[in-house]
Amino acid sequence: MKRFNIQQLALFIMLLIFSSLGAQNQISGVIYYHDNDSNPLPNVVVELYDSGDNLVATTTTNDDGEYEFSNVPYGEYYILSSSTQNFGTLNLIDPSIVLQYLNGTYNLNDFEFVAADVNGNGVVNGGDYNKLMKKILGKKNSFEEEWAFEEVEIDFTARDFEEEVEHWGTSTGDVEGIWMPGGRDLDFLVEYQLPTDLNETEIELEIGSSYKDLISGFV
Q1: Residue ranges of E strands in the chain
Q2: Which CATH number describes the domain made up of 1-183?
């Protein structure tokens, strides 16, 4: 009787091992520029690594910033992302936000801090502000150097069968994070136009839009 119980226990353990190897876990996610759900990031390469730093799978986000990994075995994983597409656009608001932060009147969140750290030294200081101003005054609209993405950790050891995640991406210097990368236009809906004649050569227009986020820029 004792021998039979040991055999049963061994069989049970083997079933658990093979069941884990054949797990059908799924990871689905979406990447937004500056965590703004109106700015999904397409064409981002998303890589899934296990806890031993081994590459498990690679995919690319679609036009809605979405991606998916299927048939993921039980275990611990992390996700790294990268991109080679055009960077976010710089304007005078970016260094002004950095200046507010340095003066103690503005708190940078995670992705704003990464974007503001143009020196890449892990802190945001006057050197970052000066480098931003020099780039903008030199009529350069981006650093064209680096994308940064939030790293995501996934734990399937607790037998979760599906994990949905959202994470952010940003580009160097674009602290404001309003404009869409890749040169895509924002979708504006004009609500009214009221022309007012000022003189023979100048007309003033009042224009309303349904776009709710901040719109800024300079020429």
Answers
A1: 25-33, 45-50, 55-60, 66-72, 76-82, 147-149, 152-155, 162-171, 190-197, 203-209
A2: 2.60.40.10
